[in-house]
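Archive maintenance. Older records in this collection stored only the sequence; we are now back-filling the structure field for every entry so that each record is complete. The fields below show one back-filled record exactly as it appears after the update. Entries are processed alphabetically, and BROMI protein is next in the queue.

ARCHIVE ENTRY
Title: BROMI protein
Organism field: Bucco capensis
Length field: 269
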Amino acid sequence: MKARADAISGKILAELLERFVSLLSESQADCCFSTGDSEAVAAAVRSESLSPAQQLGVEMTVRYGKSLNLLQEDAADGLSFVLLSCQQFLKQQQRPLVSSLHILSWCHSAVLPKNSSCLQECSPGYDWFAASVFLLMSGDEKTTLTFLQQFSHLLVSAFLWPPRLHRSIHLPLSTVESGIYPVYFCTAHNIEMLLKAELPFVSSAFHRSGFTPAQICLHWITQCFWNYLDWPEICHYLALCIFLGADYQIYLCISVFRHLQQDILQHTE
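Back-filled structure field:
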């Protein structure tokens, strides 16, 4: 990746990720999360439909995929099926929850019903990670679903795929009720600690602005860096974290801040 960024891309990268995740998912030592009932998922999908926010996300993804020459005109149906399948698959591992806490971290508040809460919904909004995998697999819905189901067993899925642990039975009830998930109290916390040590001026600039680096990084990570990195770089981000571990999510965010350091300091002035 450092010598020739285009050497690992497209179908080569997709096949490499597919094989790697498949091998890990067959190893009990590498699997942290339980599996679900795929037959029940297939039956439930037929009676479900996407929310307005998800439909907007599908349109955006297909438009983006076509501009990259990765998707065909009819890709919207395949992506919708993938998102509904993921929603039902993850729903099997969610606990019922009644909470008055309103958290809109992954939702588009403009299209949310009045008095709704992400904690009460089965889906926390548009699934940017699943959409990214769909593009990575060139719109092949069967390959995408197989990959996501195998990937969901792995620990790294808790950090790359935010909806993975939404209301999850794999988290303590107190954590679920708080709406604060590992991508925040692990990744974002470590980013802030590293930023103080590696880039103290950037850390100070954030402190003076009234924003925290965690806010920005959560936005980047939740959307898989869409609209911030080019598509090849997004693919490399996913590959690095899957191949080398979720801690590379932290290192990449620090690298982006280092790259933007001069701009950040100029804007602060």
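Update note: The first helix runs from residue 10 to 25. The chain has a mean pLDDT of 85.
Entry marked complete.
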